[in-house]
Amino acid sequence: MPTPVNVAVIYYSSTGTVAAMAKAVAEYAEKAGAQVRLRKAAELAPQAAIDSNPAWAANAKATADVAEAPPGSRPSGS
């Protein structure tokens, strides 16, 4: 029996380009049979900065349902 594959896709995206790529990676990994977790990095920018850029604000709204990666999620050595 093959060993199960677990994939964590953790990303940061201000305007949505990287978010779209991360979602595509997660979808392809799932189609290949992997157990996948899609997580975004916490947003550290002030809300005023986000609101000042329409693309940034739209992406924040569009990805509001994506869970944030917990602190310390980076693999050691990264």
How many runs of DSSP E, i.e. beta strands? 2
- Beta-strand percentage range: 15-25%
- List low-pLDDT spans: none
SSE ordering: EHEHH
Strand order within the widest beta sheet: 1-2
How big is the Rg? Answer: 14 Å
User: What is the number of helical segments per DSSP (H or I, 4+ residues)?
Assistant: 3
In short:
The chain has 78 residues and is an alpha+beta fold. Helix content is 37%, strand content 15%.
Which key features would you list for this structure?
alpha+beta; two-stranded parallel ribbon; 78 residues
Describe this structure in words.
By secondary structure, the protein is an alpha+beta fold. It has helices at residues 17-31, 47-51, 54-62; strands at residues 6-11, 35-40. The longest helix is centred in the first third of the chain and has 15 residues, at 17-31. It is elongated, with a radius of gyration of 14 Å. The mean pLDDT is 92.
